Amino acid sequence: MTPTQLRSLRLPVMVAPMFLVSGPDMVIAAARSGVIGAFPTPNCRTTEELDTWMARIKAETKDAPGLWAVNLVTHRTNSRLADDLELVAKYQPPIVITALGSPAPAIETVHRYGGIVLADVVNVALGRKAAAAGADGLVAVSSGAGGHTGQVSPFAFISSLREMFEGIICVGGAISDGMGVAGAVAAGADLVYMGTRFLAAKESLAVPDYKAMVVGAETHDIVVSDVVTGTPASWLKPSLDANGYDINGEAQKTERNYGGSDLGKRWKDVWAAGQGVGAVKTSEPLSAIVDQIELDFRAAQTRLAGY
Ligand SMILES: Cc1cc2nc3c(=O)[nH]c(=O)nc-3n(C[C@H](O)[C@H](O)[C@H](O)COP(=O)(O)O)c2cc1C
């Protein structure tokens, strides 16, 4: 997929991969709605489960080819990376997103079948490294994002990446409606990464109480803290309070470990969301959310044309 091909999508949007939230129903619904769906491979407890998920997604997105992605953790502690890459070679997802490490381990496998690799980065220095490693695109996770967040303004981030990179630039971070999507594109992005806006979608794997908290939350309910995982992440404060976390307390001292540990348990009990949470007013089918984003995106295009 090239920046030009991205322009032929219904909307330049990817439903961002979310730990314990994105599953096959979400990815398939996204592709059928004309946007890109994605899931992180650690959402499958075993390689066998990942095999089943990818087989189903590939079969059920046949009519929307090119519109699904997997997110691989390339951090050295991920002991499953080699197995996950074998399945990537088998099912050939058109887009592979690497996170928490260099894109290098995925590039050869993905390029061999004609796919593209996007590297998730949280600052310009990491963007430069990922570009040098051969990534086809960069995902600029900016301030306000849900989960492990960046701290850089999306406008500054896109401008700096554009100066040194000609590939695909995807930007995420509190972009929760079609006006925001249009703004990001106007600022120079090719694609927009939207997680929080889809947290309460019917197809999301989030439990009902999590969805209800997202629907009821406003921007001021979001806090960034390293107290849960040792890395700054954006959480729903009421869920931190309910689990006894003190955001002014000591950061988790355990070594970062993305290959297992009790990290999953922590994400299961404490709920992540980004500053764009106020845009989520109800739990509805993913296709309805995309319809609304498109209406707002078109209105924003008209508004821009008036200047
Ligand atoms: C609940 C939740 C879980 C997430 N899990 C992951 C993950 O497993 N891997 C990853 O690369 N990013 C993860 N993210 C970050 C998203 O992929 C994306 O960067 C972010 O949602 C974009 O910002 P937004 O939430 O403001 O739209 C997660 C985000 C949320 C809200």
From TrEMBL:
Pfam families: NMO
Top-level taxon in the UniProt lineage: Bacteria
InterPro entries: Aldolase_TIM, NMO
GO terms assigned for molecular function: dioxygenase activity; nitronate monooxygenase activity
SUPFAM superfamilies named in the record: Inosine monophosphate dehydrogenase (IMPDH)
Keywords per UniProt: Dioxygenase, Flavoprotein, FMN, Monooxygenase, Oxidoreductase
Entries under CDD domains matching the protein: NPD_like
Family, per entry: Belongs to the nitronate monooxygenase family. NMO class I subfamily.
UniProt name for this protein: 2-nitropropane dioxygenase
Higher taxonomy: Bacteria, Pseudomonadati, Pseudomonadota, Alphaproteobacteria, Maricaulales
